Amino acid sequence: MHAQEMQNVIFAKNSVIRILYVSYDGLLEPLGESQVVAYMEGLAERTRMTVISFEKDRDCCDPARKEAMRSRLEHKGIEWIPLRYHKQPPIISTAFDVCCAMIAGMLLVRSGRFQIVHARGYVPALLALAFKHLWGAKFLFDMRGFWADEKVDAGHWRKDSMIYRITKGWERRFFESADAIVSLTQAGVAAFPSLGYRLRSQTSIAVIPTCTDLRRFTPGTRDEALAARLGLDGHLVIGCTGTISNWYLRQPMLECLAYLAQHLDRVKILMVTHEDHRKLTLDANRAGIPDEQLVLVKVQFSAMPAYLRLMDFGLFFIKPCFSKKGSSATKLGEFLATGIPVVINNGVGDSGRIVQEHGVGVVLPETGARDIAASVVKIKELLSDPLVRIRCRETAEQYFDLQRGVEMYGALYAQLGGALASNHT
C-alpha cells in the first residue's frame, strides 16, 4: 500500500479521514441547523467532511440564507452539496432524489475516496449501502427511528402494502450491513431483537439522543421588554415550540392547554412555530383557547433561547407507538437546557423515563381528560419547586450535551477508521 493511501485511511494515527455525510433533512431548516450543522462543525476539526443535503423550495428561495450557510460551513472546512428536495409524486420523487445524490457522490469520488459514509436516516442509507459496495467505505447507519413503521403508524402506508415490505427488506440490509448503528434511544436499541435481524458481532451500536448546544441554550433572566411586547408580562407562560402536527398530538395538546388555561392563574400560551398561524388559531379556538390567551410567533432558530426563557414550562405530546420507541424530541433537550420543565406524555423513546427519574416535569400516562385533570396538582407542585430549573439544566448536561454527542460520533469515526487501517495492513 502506498504511503499516500495510508495517510488517507489511518485515522488512528491522527491523519484526517474523509467523511461523506448524507442528510435527507435540509441544512437550512431549523432541524437541520440544530441536528446536522451543529454536529458537523464540531466533527470538522478532526475530519475532512463533505455533506449532501436535500433542501426544500421555500429555503432555496432565500439566496442570502443559503450563502450565509455556505460561508459558515466553508469557515469550518466543510464542503456542502445542496440538492433540491422533491416531494411529489410520492416514491418516484424519492427515487429521483436518490439518483441525484448517487450521481453527486460519484462525481465527488473523483477528488478522492471517502472512508466513511454517515447516513442520517433510511433514504441516505440507500446511498451509503451502494457506496460501501462500490468503494469499500464504512457504513454508519444513523437510523433516527424505525422509518417504515413510522409510515404505518402515521397512517400513510398499510402494513400489508408492497412499499412497506420493500422498505422493511432494505431495513434488514441496513442493519445487517452497517459497520455502526446509532439509535436515538435506549428503548430503540431494546427493540432491535424484535426485528429478527442478524447483526454482525463487530457492528458497533451507540445511543446518541438529539442533542442541544448548551452554550446557546442556557438558563437566564427573562427579557422583560420582549415579554411586554408579546403581552406576557405578569402571566404564567406555557410554551409550545416547533412542530405541533404530524407525530405531535395536536388536538390533545390543544385540549390540555385549554384545560390548564382555565385551571391555572393568569395563563398565556406562547407558541413559537412556523406552522400556519391562521389554522392553528382556529384549531386552538375550537379547543377552547380564546385569542386573548394565545400568542403565536415565528422566529429564526438563533432567537429560540430568548423565547424559551419567557416560558414557565413547555408542553408537547407525541403519538406513542412502536416506531416512536426510537424517537428523541429535539425540543426536550432545548427546554431542559434552558432550565424549563416540561409536561409530556409517556411511551415515547426514553423521554418519560428521563423526565420522571430526574424530576424535571410531569409525565401523563395518557392524554385523556382524566390524566389532564390529574396533572394540574403536579404542575403546581413543579412550579413551586425552587430547584426544578437547576435539575433541568443538570439533566440536559447529562443526556443532551452537544459536545458529548460530538465526542461519541468522533469515537465511532475513529473506531471505523481504525478498522479500515487494519483491513489495509
From the 3D structure, determine the CATH topology of the largest domain: Rossmann fold
Instruction: Estimate the global geometry from the Cα principal axes.
Output: globular
What's the total count of β strands?
13
Uncertain stretches: 1-14
Number of helices: 19
Q: What is the beta-strand fraction?
A: 15-25%
* CATH top level label of the largest domain: Alpha Beta
The CATH superfamily of the largest domain turns out to be: Glycogen Phosphorylase B
What is the share of helical residues? Answer: 40-55%
Radius of gyration: 22 Å
Number of domains: 2
CATH architecture of the largest domain: 3-Layer(aba) Sandwich
Describe, in plain words, how this protein is organized in 3D:
With 425 residues, the chain is an alpha/beta fold. 48% of the residues lie in helices and 16% in strands. Strands 3-2-1-4-5-6-7 form a seven-stranded parallel sheet, sandwiched between helices. Helix 2 (30-43) packs across helix 19 and helix 5 (92-108) runs parallel beside helix 6. The longest helix is centred in the last third of the chain and has 22 residues, at 402-423. It starts with a helix and ends with a helix.
Name a few traits of the molecule.
alpha/beta; 19 helices; globular; 7-stranded parallel beta sheet; disordered N terminus; single chain; 2 domains; Rossmann fold; 425 residues
Give me a quick take on this structure.
It contains 19 helices and 13 strands. Strand 4 (116-120), helix 6 (122-135) and strand 5 (138-142) form a beta-alpha-beta unit.
